[in-house]
Amino acid sequence: MTTPLLQVSDLQVFYGKVEALHSVAIQVGAGQIVTVIGPNGAGKSTMLNAIAGALPSNGAIKGKVLLDAHDLGGMAIEKRVARGMCLVPEKRELFSSMRVEDNLLLGSYRRYQAGEKNYADQLQVVFELFPRLLERRNQEAGTLSGGERQMLALGRALMAKPQLLMLDEPSLGLAPLIVKEIFHIIQRLKQTGVAILLVEQNARAALQVADYAYVLETGEIALQGPAAELAHDQRVIDTYLGLA
Ligand code: ATP
């Protein structure tokens, strides 16, 4: 069996005395889409932030996070980016008064710093994936629509050429048509070879694009399996997929 790209084991996170994650174990294979679904407050963002090295300062972490078999324990966020993981946070965190293209270029800053001559080449790849960003390359990021902002956040993460992209609720607050477009883009991203760890409340759409899925409930993995199987699990249907 090949070693998974991301291996998380016995992950625990505490905010003060409160345990937000309890012994979480997940894996993502190279080039796979893996989704983590679950209700509000289950600990999904906490899990992504812990993996990315981006926990708030009152969060304490135990357990192992391996990327490509390298232990990331205690490693700073920018070193994790250099190792090939990139988080697109729920709040997108764009630079509103900067142009779209400059926001994208910031995503390749680490590669620029590392002396990579062709750090900006990836811009063409991103513009091919997101023609809308090419049209708006000179527009200030703060003037973009919600969907365009999510595209820019995704594009900026791709500028770092990650092996693993972690997406925190990419469909949050977007209109249904735009949500469809975002999930379509996620499928296209998979074709570029990047692995994706997708946290979503839109369980139906997430299970459609994912290879494997975990259900996180009150800080613990309650259920897991191939996404197509979980989509037919009666408990998942009743709790997360509703009647529609
Ligand atoms: P949502 O879908 O609503 O974003 P989530 O599944 O991503 O929820 P988290 O945001 O990870 O859940 O929160 C998990 C638990 O940890 C919640 O009870 C939350 O109130 C708590 N929590 C999150 N961040 C902090 C923090 N910085 N300090 C204290 N408690 C926190």
TrEMBL record:
GO terms for molecular function: ATP binding; ATP hydrolysis activity; branched-chain amino acid transmembrane transporter activity. InterPro entries: AAA+_ATPase, ABC_transporter-like_ATP-bd, ABC_transporter-like_CS, BCAA_Transport_ATP-bd_LivF, P-loop_NTPase. Coiled coil: none annotated. Residues 6-243 form the ABC transporter domain. Gene3D superfamilies: P-loop containing nucleotide triphosphate hydrolases. Keywords: Amino-acid transport, ATP-binding, Cell membrane, Membrane, Nucleotide-binding, Transport. Belongs to the ABC transporter superfamily. This is ABC transporter ATP-binding protein.
